[in-house]
Design goal:
The protein is mainly alpha-helical. It contains eleven helices and two strands.
Length: 278
């Protein structure tokens, strides 16, 4: 960690009501509905978008227990309903043997189906630039489909924001917006920046905790999350740093934590990055 960032991280005021959180929480505290619970209910009801999202969450361990074999079981019904991302996700999984046996022939079938899908997002031009699945996977592992707007913004978001909003933009709790799903992304930069500075709902104000240029840069990174998510598991996943900030539960009652360092969690269970083999 950069020395300046480490200093600011250690000096972040313990003025937030926080507690330690170990592992991935799939049930919300005090009866609050988690994103995982909400998405799972919709997926069980047959919603293709929810089925694909649940598969994505399980594949990356994003606000859900990590299980790539189980992710496949949710991608499949979504793909059968014509969901483009689910079709592409299954193509990649079968091609690489991620959580399932490698099957290049089936991977190619899913890839062709996705390529011909009329619902293919037009803004993901990179998906149209490669004629074969191997070319696409190799390129995606060399460079992300959507370039983050600066290393600094990504670091700030992952360290201070991802505990609630998820490293890939899927929030842990339902009342926190999932930026990857476009929630609150209709707002202007100025509106979102004011919310970050002054707080919004259960999110506390950050104006007195981090430099304003860090917050601006983090907002720039947030703007990339929706487009990255539409590329499914093909984009190189973003992970939290080894130590990051976590609300548990979120509160605007700024009391001291119960114990020194209670606001911080050591992230020892990073999901596997299939591009880098670990």
């Amino acid at each position: 960690m950069r020395p300046s960032r480490l200093l600011a991280f250690l000096l972040l005021p313990a003025a937030l009501s926080c507690g330690p959180a170990r592992g991935t929480r799939t049930t919300a505290p005090s009866g609050r509905v988690s994103t995982f619970q909400r998405v799972r209910e919709a997926a069980l009801a047959g919603d293709a978008e929810a089925q694909n999202l649940l598969g994505f969450m399980l594949f990356l361990g994003e606000s859900a227990p990590a299980s790539r074999p189980l992710a496949r079981l949710w991608f499949e019904p979504a793909a059968a309903q014509g969901h483009f991302s689910a079709q592409l996700n299954l193509a990649v999984m079968h091609y690489l043997g991620e959580g399932i046996p490698e099957d290049r022939a089936l991977a190619q079938q899913y890839f062709i189906t996705a390529a011909l899908n009329p619902a293919k997002p037009r803004d993901l031009s990179a998906l149209n630039a490669f004629g074969t699945l191997p070319e696409l996977v190799e390129w995606a592992c060399e460079a992300p489909l959507v370039e983050p707007k600066g290393e600094e913004g990504e670091f700030t978001f992952l360290t201070y924001c991802s505990g609630c909003h998820g490293p890939n933009g899927i929030a842990a709790l339902g009342e926190s917006p999932s930026f990857a799903l476009g929630e609150r992304m209709e707002k202007s930069d100025d509106e979102l920046y004011r919310s970050i500075l002054g707080g919004h709902g259960t999110m506390p104000r950050w104006s007195d905790k981090l430099p304003v240029n860090w917050l601006r840069q983090a907002l720039g990174f947030v703007r990339t999350l929706e487009k990255r998510h539409r590329a499914g598991i093909l984009h190189v996943p973003t992970h939290r740093p080894p130590v990051y900030f976590r609300f548990g539960p979120m509160s605007t009652d700024f009391g001291l934590p119960e114990a020194p360092g209670a606001a911080y969690e050591t992230n020892s269970d990073l999901p596997r990055d299939f591009c880098r083999g670990g």
